[in-house]
Amino acid sequence: KGGSGDLLAGIIGALSLRLPLDQAVASGVWIHGRAADLLAQKSGSPSSVTPSACVEHLSAVFSELYAHADG
């Protein structure tokens, strides 16, 4: 299992395929943090935030982004 840095690196790496590196880094950090925030809100405990649980919330973050972009 990877840690939160591995998750962040993966997000940034994926985004860098489509965005300039500075935008990929800034966006990746925000996406990573938002996924953790959603998880903490859902669980009610920031201590329950793990990288593997954050991965499960990435789709919700991207749904928010797409909804915001369309609206």
Structure characterization notes:
There is one protein chain. The chain has helices spanning 4-15, 21-43, 51-55, 58-70. Helix 1 (4-15) crosses helix 2 (21-43) and helix 2 packs across helix 4. The chain is 75% helix and 0% strand. It has four helices and no strands. The model has no long low-confidence stretch (mean pLDDT 91). The longest helix is centred in the middle third of the chain and has 23 residues, at 21-43. The chain is mainly alpha-helical and 71 residues long.
Between the first and last Cα atoms, what is the distance in angstroms? 37 Å
Quaternary status: single chain
Largest sheet: none
Strand content: under 5%
Summarize the structure.
This protein is mainly α and 71 residues long. It is 75% helix and 0% strand. The longest helix is centred in the middle third of the chain and has 23 residues, at 21-43.
Give the topology:
Blueprint: H1 4-15, H2 21-43, H3 51-55, H4 58-70
Task: Quickly list its features.
mainly alpha; about 70 residues
